[in-house]
Amino acid sequence: MVLVAVILGAGTVPRDPGTLVIGLGTDPGSLDPARVTSVADGHILRALFEGLTIADPETLAPLPGAAQSWSISPDGRTYRFELRPENRWSNGDALTSADFRASWLRLLDPAEGCSYASFLWSIVGAEAYTSGTGGRDGVAIHCPGPYSLEIVLKEPLPYFLCLTSFYSLSPVHPPSLVESGGSALTAPDALVSNGPYRLTGRWLRDRIRVEKSTTYWDAAHVEIPRIDFLAAESPTTLLNLFLTGEADWITKVPTGVIPALRSDPAYASVFAPRPHLETAFYRVNVTRPPWDDPALRRALSLALDREQLCERITRSGEQPAWSFVPWPAPALERLVPGGTPPLSDYIRACLSIDGVVADSHVTAEQWGALGFDPARAREVLIASGYQTVGNPQGTPLPPIEILYNTSPLHQRTAEWIQDSWARELGLTV
Prior knowledge:
Elements: E1 2-5, E2 8-9, E3 19-23, H1 39-48, E4 53-55, E5 62-64, E6 67-72, E7 78-83, H2 97-108, H3 126-131, E8 141-145, E9 148-152, H4 160-163, H5 174-180, E10 197-203, E11 207-212, E12 226-230, H6 235-243, E13 249-250, H7 258-263, H8 265-268, E14 274-279, H9 294-302, H10 306-314, H11 329-335, E15 349-352, E16 355-358, H12 364-367, H13 374-383, H14 408-425
Parallel strand pairs: 3-12, 3-13
Antiparallel strand pairs: 1-14, 2-13, 4-5, 6-7, 7-9, 8-9, 10-11, 11-12, 15-16
Helix pairs in contact: 9-13
């Protein structure tokens, strides 16, 4: 599924106008840019840290962040970033190119085991360092000067500037990490950050509090003095917090109340589903036969009516996903007629029943069932020698197990997939 952010804004009970309260829906697993992997935690990190670039709020095009400018070599492989001399950490230390180099090398360090180390593997020597076949000195991250950072890529990467705005590539404060052994990224009185806000409070299973950082280079334009990120996980609890004025903005609501929120005039003005750059998918364990066969995995995909999943289960405006890069033009057109997809100059490849096609060749009307064809899924299984609905001949497919977290929505999704595969393919889940 291509997801939308479900947003309710503007509560009903007056509170401190200087605090924005966001119902984040989870207690952050970490505040370490190198270790965070969840979208929710990323919201907090974007308040605390800033990368070389930031994303334009409308187009998502890269804008100057900690770097005030950059240049790219004619062959597209060498990037030189010029940092703002006025950059400061929240403790007043100067932010230098050496801080970025140390932070990126830490992300790549095989001893750290960071999930997003691969985001930097386009850099010469980076993958070899992470895999243990090369050393730190072989990674092409250089500091020609205290405020200059030079990166050499293995080959041109058109979206490299977009990557530099991702929270995992934010800098961390090397001295405090060394002094604390890593614990400086957890405690409010120890965490040193370079973003528009600084950490001032953390209450387990309650909230994270950040306040405007006076050392941020653009502090004059940070208009919200304080943000509280609530850790409540239940969509019902989040909705109640909003309705009682305890939260200004929540990011999820119970799916069962969505029709009422859309139709009731009292809530329709503040219920605002918006396109969200996230794609939900299932990962198949390809080390276990017979699911190491791409044809069988293709059959699993062909048998799922994503349109029905979005309409009956998720119900928040999500659209079927036929690609990993979210919001191709046909999907956005269905949600926001006339809308322009983020990163509109990016050509998205989509998986149809006949193979990979460019989204420019797909209409909004075709999008919902672009890759749904249960009859063809059964044909694939028969051709591979397996039993399926309507064909008792061949080898029985082994049962498949679905693992999911405790989210009620994820449970309903798994149950829907279980029913779909049983009905269309005769697969036991």
